[in-house]
Design brief:
Elements: H1 11-28, E1 46-67, E2 70-76, E3 79-84, E4 87-107, E5 110-114, E6 119-123, E7 127-133, E8 136-141, E9 147-151, H2 156-169
Antiparallel strand pairs: 1-4, 1-9, 2-3, 4-5, 5-6, 7-8, 8-9
C-alpha cells in the first residue's frame, strides 16, 4: 500500500509524462530564440537545433540490356559485317543518397543543415510542401529534389518545432 506523499507511478510512466509535457510545450509555447552552432544572417534567429541526417532521392543506372537478333557475316580474315536490330533497354533504381550527419537549425528565415562536409540551406519561402514524421521531415522545394531529414533518435519535439517553424514563420 502506498503511503501518502509517495509516488505510485513507475519510472517508465514518469518518462512518458515528461515527454508529453515537452511535446505540449512545443505545440503551445512561444517560439523562443536558442543559440545556433553557426553565425546567422542579420535579423535571423534560431528557434530549434536538432542532430539529423540528410538524404536526397537519386536514381542510378544498374545495367543496360541489348535485345534483338543479329547476324555476323565474315568478309575476310579479321573483318566481318554485322546485321540485325538492337533494342537497348536500361534498368534504373531509385535510392536515397545520404549527405551524412549534422545539425539542422530551424530559423525564422530558413532550414539550415550543417555538417563537416556539406551545408544545405532551404529558405522557408521556397518550401512548397512538407511531410512530417515522428523521426524526421521530408521537404519539397519549388525546384530541385526533395530532401529528407531524419532525427537522431525519436525526437517528436523536433518534428513539432519543424512544423511550427515552416507554418508560422514563413
Amino acid at each position: 500500500m502506498a503511503m501518502i506523499g509517495q509516488s505510485v507511478l513507475s519510472p517508465n510512466t514518469k518518462v512518458a509524462i515528461d515527454e508529453g509535457r515537452k511535446v505540449y510545450r512545443a505545440h503551445h509555447g512561444s517560439l523562443e530564440q536558442v543559440d545556433a552552432p553557426v553565425l546567422l544572417k542579420r535579423g535571423e534567429f534560431c528557434v530549434y537545433v536538432v542532430s539529423a541526417e540528410a538524404f536526397e532521392d537519386r536514381s542510378r543506372t544498374v545495367r543496360v540490356n541489348y535485345h534483338g537478333p543479329t547476324v555476323r557475316i565474315p568478309i575476310m580474315k579479321g573483318v566481318s559485317y554485322r546485321l540485325g536490330s538492337f533494342a537497348p533497354s536500361r534498368q534504373t533504381e531509385e535510392y536515397q543518397h545520404s549527405f551524412g550527419a549534422g545539425a539542422l537549425c530551424m530559423t525564422n528565415q530558413r532550414l539550415l543543415w550543417i555538417s563537416p562536409k556539406k551545408s544545405i540551406s532551404v529558405p522557408l519561402s521556397n518550401i512548397v510542401r512538407f511531410d512530417p514524421f515522428t523521426d524526421g521531415l521530408r521537404i519539397f522545394k519549388g525546384s530541385g529534389k526533395p530532401l529528407l531529414f531524419v532525427w537522431q533518435g525519436d525526437d517528436r519535439v523536433a518534428t513539432v518545432m519543424a512544423q511550427r517553424t515552416i507554418q508560422e514563420l514563413r
